[in-house]
Predict the structure.
Amino acid sequence: MPKHLILIGFLAFASIHMATAQNKGKEAVEQAVLQLKEAMLSGEEASLIAISSKNLTYGHSNGVVEDQDAFVYALASGNNNFTSIDLADQTVEVLGKIALVRHNLTGNTHNKGAEPATVNLGVLMVWQKEGKNWKLLARQAFKR
């Protein structure tokens, strides 16, 4: 068999393998985003801790920035309370052990001491693979 055919076959196999690995990585990140959404809706402390990095920086659209402890406390205490979250127009780009996720978030909140409200946000998230799991490392929201 000519060497150029072997090389073409190898390159085709490598391309298919890389595309499959990228799709699996993308699917895993998409699943982590859904787990974050569910944790935010439930306010369950253990789930919020499990899905976020110890080094989390969580930026709200009003300029408030929280670390992991403040992020978890705000949702677990009910101070911040999402009653619904819908995500749209999501893109995921996996770059090795880092993933960039962008989406539009619409939802309803009923925070302690406040009237129920509707939110319409653009969100950029940075996810980092820690071991076998994707953890939220950074998030910044902006009003749309």
